[in-house]
Amino acid sequence: MKARKYLIAGALVLGLAAPVMAQDYVSAIEEVSNALKADPTGLGSAKSIVKGYMKEFKKNPEAMVALGNAYLSNKQFAKAVECADLALKKNKNYGEAYILKGDVESLKDDGGQAAAWYQQAMTLDPKNPNGYMRYANVYRKRSPQESERALAELRKNCPDFDVDAEAAHTFYTSGQYEKAMEYFEKTNLQKLSESRIGEYALTALSVGNSAKGLDVSKVAIQRFPSNHGFLRLALINGVGAQKYDDAIRFAEQLMSSNDVEKNSGDYTYYGQALLGAEKHSEAIAQFNKSFSMDSESFKNLQLISEAYAGMGDEDKALEYSKQYLSKNPNAKVSEYNKLAGIYLAKVKKGIDKEANFASAMAVYDDIIQKFPSVKDWAMYQKGNQAFLAEMPDAAISNYMPLITALEGSSSLSDDQKTYLKAAYRAVGYAYWGDKNDLETAKPFFEKLHQMDPNDKLAKQALGIEEEQAQ
Questions:
Q1: CA-to-CA distance for 383 and 392, rounded, in angstroms?
Q2: Residue 274 · residue 283 · CB < 8 Å
Q3: pLDDT tens digits, residue range 18-27?
Q4: Which end of the chain is more exposed for a tag (fewer CB within 10 A), N or C?
């Protein structure tokens, strides 16, 4: 990739004065690069090709750096340095040669020496932005102030160079999306290149800012209408931002494009957009298309389940949810919770209330076994769902194990405190409000009052409000 970058840069420079030579140079370095992939040292099958290249372009600094980068991509560090030195013999101020030397040291994990070479490039070739960018990247973590100083110098010496876009690109390619986003937000969308604006949209998606990703994708579609990849980014970001009408519109444009090969993901995201817009039947059709293209895309089964649940067809929702969980060994807690939710929807409708409630409780028991880290949450859910279903006996029997477990803990997290207070309140209410047994309820309200002196139900049950009023 580096070789190609320098090749393109060289071709542009040479093209101004000698277009024929530029074309020969481009063709030649591509042939050499391919040969060195098979023979990295250049001493075997690539020897004659390298020799011919050297004979024709040895006096060309740009060509020597391009060759050096070809060697560098194959980790032939000594050969890369030789090429840099040959370039400097012809032009001692040629910054790309110093940058090549710095890249060698960088790949050898010698950041200090790499920075020294990049600084040489900055000093001797001050109009070349690459030296500043490399130098700033070296110091990004070890000295942010020095990194910013280099970028400030770059802005001063190369005012037409989009520093923020290139800094964002550097962070993007290294997977540091938060920092990439910070720099992308400083750029002008109308001036970003096609590749950089794509990186911006992907970065926004990666940091969870789908609303920004959608805005960026819209601009990209306007500026680069022939790039259908931006329709995909708009669709995905639209779903993430819950802008379902926008997402559907871009999905329809993508689907109607005859020159775009559709993939399973396209149909899945189209279905999610329709699902978000509560177009359940249409969504199911898209999920089925996706699943027919990729039988391993089990996510579609879960999404079909959600669509049927949205239609109020719990039996079909259960069928697909169970299929999904049986096929996906990496299913999440939230997806098991959705299965429990389907049973509880039937409980709310009064359909086989006891049986469906028992099935929901079994799902939470399964969660406790599969995901021990959320045991307290699952135990809380069992009690809470019973309370919401107006099943006081079940609420008491399901909350008591949680109360026992948390009361026996030496220290409680904030979540555990929340669960315990809810349990005291629900069990107290079940005894007092449903069973008219205030004496049995009082110990739970007393414990609740100790944890939360302002809880109104506890104060009412204990007669504290009446005492305070008197």
A1: 9
A2: yes
A3: 333 344 667 7
A4: C
Q: Which residue has the tokens 């997806």?
A: 335
Calculate the alpha carbon distances from 82 to 91, 112, 179, 185, 372 in Å: 14, 21, 36, 41, 59
Gyration radius (Cα) of the chain, Å: 32
Which tokens in the block code for residue 169? 């690109």
Residues 6+ apart with CB under 8 A from 166: 129, 133
State mean pLDDT over 327-353: 97
Alpha-carbon gap, residue 184 to 178, rounded angstroms: 10
With contact defined as beta carbons under 8 Å apart, do 39 and 1 qualify?
no
Q: For residue 59, what are the CA distances in angstroms to 54, 84, 178, 370, 379?
A: 8, 12, 44, 68, 76
Dihedral angle sign, alpha carbons of residues 8, 10, 15, 19: negative
User: Which own/partner contact pairs does 343-346 have at CB distance under 8 Å and 24+ positions apart?
Assistant: 343/314, 343/318, 344/385, 344/389, 345/309, 345/314, 346/314
95 Cβ contact partners less than 8 Å away, ≥ 6 residues apart: 121, 122, 124, 125, 128, 130, 131
- How far, in Å, CA of 102 to CA of 3, rounded? 15
> Is residue 111 within 8 Å of residue 88, measured between CB atoms?
no
Encode pLDDT of 108-130 as tens digits. Answer: 999 999 999 999 999 999 999 99
| CA pair distance 302, 188, nearest whole angstrom | 40
Contact status, residue 458 vs residue 425, Cβ threshold 8 Å: yes
Tokens of 251: 């999905």
Report the alpha-carbon angle 154-158-161, nearest 5. 95
Interatomic CA distance for residues 33 and 323, integer angstroms: 50
CB 278 within 8 A of CB 259: no
Structure-block tokens of residue 155: 């802005």
Biggest alpha carbon distance in the chain? Answer: 106
